[in-house]
Request: fold
Amino acid sequence: MFLYNLTVLYLAAVLLKQLVKKHWQEGEDSFEPPVVSDNEKDIIRKMLLLALDDPHRKICTAIGMAVASIAMYDWPELWSDLLPFLLNLINNQTNLNGVHGAMKCLVLLSADLGDNMVPTLIPALFPSLLTIVSSPQIYDSYIRTKAFSIVYSCTSMLGAMSGVYNAETSSLVVPLLKPWMEQFSSILKIPVQSENPDDWSIKMEVLKCLNQFIQNFSSLIKSEFEVVLQPLWNTFVSSLRVYELASIEGTEDSYEGRYDSDGSEISLESFVIQLFELLLTIVGNSRLGKVVAANVKELVYYTIAFLQMTEQQTPVLLYHMPSCFPVYLNKE
Ligand SMILES: *[C@@H]1O[C@H](CO)[C@@H](O)[C@H](O)[C@H]1NC(C)=O
Ligand SMILES: *[C@@H]1O[C@H](CO)[C@@H](O)[C@H](O)[C@H]1NC(C)=O
Reply:
């Protein structure tokens, strides 16, 4: 691999993705002849997996995307070793590039999951994800954040299935509740950090997961909710000071309008919006809302503080001020 120029390698991976779209599967809308032969397909699939641990993140991403685009057609029927291979990669702590590549792939696969795959994927994958999120000394916060985003995708899918397959989804969710709520708690109990989008991103994924669990499975959540409540409150209260400094006073960076390498928004604002979305879900939940009702005074107090005008809104308001307060101005 090191013989080739990086740009060429990257373009090759991108090109491959195009090729898959046009020539992989006959009968697809995007198909154009000729079709790739079965033999070639086999070789391409094998080579891609071997390149997933490339040390260059951009290459790794491009390879991951190519794998995911093939998986759309071939997985699981024609590519039965894909999942075992990815699991092997994410479980190998001596090969962190491989963990990175496999996570990229799994993020893409889980975002586009069929309901037939979820029952196999969750028991196979979640124990490894749990190890990843609970080992910050080994895995960086990017990888841990992506692990939570895979959990979110899978639980959303489970949630969508829960209407029809209630008993099946419940039996998948119940064993997840305790260990994952504990992980949510251990991330949320650490106060929100200033000017640290990595911290906001991982907390934001945790809030999304929690929101999904509550929206779809609140009847299964019992004592686990109390475990997460205090840490969630810590996140809420500590985020106010950070929000004031960055968005209201404008003395710190709020990473407004910025995105990570996967196109996920990393601004403080997107984190705060997610936080309020979760609070709304909790307050609107007939059972869990009661737990919060005891502390409603504090909740309102902090919520009002969040409503202060942001630095960005100030010029707009000053501009409109004369028409807002005509009487006051006339007196002057
Ligand atoms: C883990 O990765 C290392 C380095 O790539 C490799 O030598 C080793 O065989 C891998 N272990 C397993 C169990 O796959
Ligand atoms: C699951 O949650 C989604 C919102 O994320 C909601 O639209 C859907 O109705 C819920 N389904 C069930 C069965 O609770």
User: Anything to note?
Assistant: Confidence is low (pLDDT under 50) at residues 321-332. The two ends are 75 Å apart (CA to CA). The chain is about 70% helix and 0% strand. Residues 7-112 form one domain.
